[in-house]
Amino acid sequence: MTPVGFGPLRRKEDLRLVRGRGRFVDDIALPGMLHGAILRSPYAHARIVSVDTSAAESHPKVRAVLTGADLAARDMAWMPTASHDVAAVLACEKVHFQGQEVAFVVAEDRYAARDALALIEVEYEPLPAVVDARTALDPDAPLVRDEQPGCTDNHIFDWESGDAAATDAVFAAAEHVSDCDLVYPRVHPAPLETCGIVADADRIEGRLTVHATTQAPHTHRVLYSRIAGVPEHRIRVVAPDIGGGFGNKVAMYPGYLCAVVASTVTGRPVKWVEDRSENLMASSFARDYHMRGEIAATRDGRILAVRVRVLADHGAFNATSQPSRFPAGFFGVFTGSYDLRAAHCRVTGVHTNKAPGGVAYACSFRITEASYLVERLVDVLAHDLGLDPARLRMDNLLRAEQFPHPTPTGWEYDSGDYPATLRLALEIAGYDELRAEQAATRAEYERTGRGRLLGIGLSFFTEAVGAGPRRTMDIMGLGMADGADLRVHPSGGAVLAVSCMSQGQGHETTFAQIIGHELGIPADQVQVVQGDTDRTPFGLGTYGSRSTAVSGAATVVAARRVRERARLVAGAMLEIDPIDLEWVPGRWQVRGDPTAGASLTEIAAAAHSGLELPDGVEGHLDASCVYNPPNLTFPCGAYLCVVEVDPVTGEVRVRRFVAVDDCGVRINPMIVAGQVHRGLADGIGMALMELITFDPDGNHLAASFMDYLLPTSMECPSWELGETVTPSPHHPIGAKGVGESATVGSPAAVVNAVLDAIGVRHADMPLTPAQVWRAVQGRPLRP
Ligand code: PCD
Predict the structure, then answer these.
(1) Average pLDDT over every residue of 676-681
(2) Ligand 1 centre and the CA of 377: distance in Å?
(3) Pocket of ligand 1 (CB under 6 A)
(4) What's the whole-number average pLDDT of the chain?
(5) Which ipTM score applies to this complex?
(6) Which residues contact 508 (CB under 8 A, 6 or more apart)?
(7) Are the CB atoms for 753 and 767 separated by under 8 Å?
(8) Ligand 1: centre distance to CA 333 (Å)
């Protein structure tokens, strides 16, 4: 028997996943299945003069070749994006970035499809490319989107948040202002499993079945329907096991649509799975924000206001996946965790000749950038004023009694005890002893010119996760609410169907635990169904750490509805007014007489039996819920990183990492710890090694894991975790999301630690040995 309710329960899905019995998209083989491959542009910017597919078509194993013109004939050459733009499915008149999709070959096997790509003749007329966002708005910049009528520049949007006048006034009167230019470089979610699809268009039944790597099966079904013109009830989207998403599997990619069209054209199922380079070059990137931050304070360190100017590089198509009214995502939370008088930011989005996207890679829509900005600014301020960064944070954090806290940019933080969280992190780390050790190693270094420098870096973050409410948040017009359907069988076991979709987060376990907690039955008596639009209720899916906050809440409410139905049935069974029954986990019993009652198992049997039920009581115990969250949940955390830097080589070793997270009530603390470990590794990766970069012609310089470095256990210390618990006041079990928290909070802690070690005010990520060495030497840094 597994335990009932919340607690560190081993993940149910691991039974199959750790034995190699997971079933991923590439494991699917349908009878007669063909294989697709994509021809991609070698140029970042070029006009397409001609495309000749005849040689490829005559390859003996090739069954179809699709070009932009073929898709244009079906009105499918362009698809809508979640950010009010369109993106090319297959390029027609020109290519906009290196790796852009130009043609799709379908053949009897993957090798033949790949071989035939080489037989396609494309004549390109290369054009100058705009690669650096900082030059994208220059009057002579090449126009990325000149195929769009009326295009005169590379400008996408201007967006602002906060009160400009009030902020300017605070700055004008402030005793001290610190500022800093920061780049949050382009990085990639890089899930271990790349993106893929098996599309099966059944001409006889007129049905389209799609097995795909998608974090949002229902949203994808709506998109297939809108783009391909097939009604939703004839489309089934199935997400099987997914090998990591991290936001990379939220968007709709050209390869998916090409496979759908190819299956329609050939009448056979078509599989397309991208390789690593394709994933790194062409699917949704993240970040790429150029930020200028200013922070106003009193001379003794009372933070008053923050002012920010951002240039956002959205690549060739504005294909950022985020709620449609938030062009810069939730960047508005750049005020961080502090008690500010005023704040204002202005974000300008521009096109460049780079892959489209700007995905919420492990943060709720641009909060990683926002959190990094403010946590770096606070350290810059500490540096400029000669204050201790821990003290400075402690003095300025929002206090527990200030919640719910309306921020100067219009958010309402739901709950938190920030000082307690920071205090705990400092305590676990032994902050004062660390500072003493740092002083000793520095003195030693100055005396001998040898040794490593110790650095201590802090960050405090507030995440905003669990989008909607649907009143203000939608993706392409679909309000951000999610459903849960709960069926209780005659034997008392249950099947829960949810609209969210696990990519490794362990939903089969945690969602069963939620039911277990609410109904008092063991989690192994609850089967969780997800990732199949034919079998699950509608909802927007899993990203922005919204599953627990939204689908989890829907699950709680559905379970409580089941409990209320069970009460009515128990009343009939016990021949007593249901009012006189009370719930003890797993059982309705007569108030004041614990011996008289019925367990949920007995009630379930009775609910399906011939028992005479009162008028209006339907029988069975099934219930469902569509949950429209009243607000986001706002988890927080205090992180402390200790590094050792070799000033001679620039090498950084992360010696310790303390992470205290507050995600409200924890359903499964073991899974939460795993989620935090994952995000901390992410932070080390982004801070020290991950970078998608381009040469001036727009050639992608990080298209393999030889160049795009991911952190491994070798670079990670043994994590030291702590927790505080301030339940979300509006979530039915007080839980807040946590999946992305550590990715949001950790980069700043690592960067702050490295810069603290070498005594440098600012240097941009990634802090590779070369970058650190330049910083130590006072040489120009990587731009
Ligand atoms: N939890 C608990 N408690 C609490 C919270 C939470 O227990 N309080 C748990 C749950 O239930 C789950 C997990 O934990 O199981 C998580 O959760 P959440 O926070 O709600 O989240 P979700 O929604 O579920 O998920 C999502 C996330 C994201 S978003 C991301 S990036 C990442 C993360 O998740 N991804 C991933 N993590 C992970 N992991 C893994 N393994 N894999 C993956 O892929 Mo985005 O927007 O998409 O970018």
Answers:
(1) 98
(2) 28
(3) 215, 244-247, 250, 360-362, 503-507, 510, 542-549, 663-668, 671-672, 675, 678, 735-740
(4) 97
(5) 0.99
(6) 11, 12, 13, 502, 528, 530
(7) no
(8) 20
